[in-house]
């Protein structure tokens, strides 16, 4: 005996809802990639600003160090001539050592930031970094940041869980399928494949309605859990929109403060 029975679901609300969830999940994945790219941009921008700030601090510290070196030399000469106390020399020397230590720390931090920026942006070591506050000051200030990636991701998550809730509820609805059957068999008590007996063919086509009965407890529990998850996701989406607006405003104020 052999047969084949293809079946096509004509009305399957649960599958339709799961297909919708898959579409939303694809959009959510693309958005997650954009968020990862945004993180890279933010890290690179922070590194650029840190290097520019450290460069200015190093230049200022070097100028102060020159002055402290001259003062230390003058105080030492006065001490040798009996015009200054040893405490004055110690204070001048301590200030000089503190500035040198501060300069060494700034140079080390700048080297770390440059190495991190090169690794992040795949910049060759032989290629010099051109970083200055002049280029930063030339950057236009947007009147209002419009980044909404986090809120969009939360909204997609809410939509996907809502679709999952719909699928869990639709799982308790009947499914209408188109069924086709075709089979062949031999009825013989003499041999497994008796050539003296003709093949008997049977086939039919029709509709099949599948309905869970009695109601499946696991499906009811899944529907209840999906409803709670959808409600929580909706609240998270609302909170994400509020945080997104506040975050954009804080970013704008911080950007203006840095350049002021």
Question: Could you characterize what this model shows?
Answer:
The chain is 67% helix and 12% strand. By secondary structure, it is an alpha+beta fold. Strands 1, 2, 3 and 4 form a 4-stranded antiparallel β-sheet that branches. The model has no long low-confidence stretch (mean pLDDT 84).
SSE layout:
Blueprint: E1 2-4, E2 7-11, H1 13-80, H2 86-121, H3 133-138, H4 149-170, E3 175-185, E4 200-210, H5 217-259
Antiparallel strand pairs: 1-3, 2-3, 3-4
Helix pairs in contact: 1-2, 1-4, 4-5
Question: Brief overview, please?
Answer:
This protein has 5 helices and 4 strands. The chain is an alpha+beta fold and 260 residues long.
Mean pLDDT: 84
What portion of the residues fall into strands of 2 or more residues?
5-15%
| H/E series | EEHHHHEEH
Please count the beta strands (DSSP E, at least 2 residues each).
4
Determine the number of helices (DSSP H or I, runs of at least 4 residues): 5
How would a crystallographer describe the biggest sheet? 4 strands, antiparallel
Shape: elongated
- Radius of gyration, in Å, reads 37 Å
How helical, in percent, are the residues?
55-70%
Oligomer: single chain
> How far do the termini sit from each other?
86 Å
Class from secondary-structure proportions: alpha+beta
Low-confidence stretches: none
Task: Please describe the structure with a list of short key phrases separated by commas or semicolons.
260 residues; alpha+beta; 4-stranded antiparallel sheet; 5 helices; 67% helix
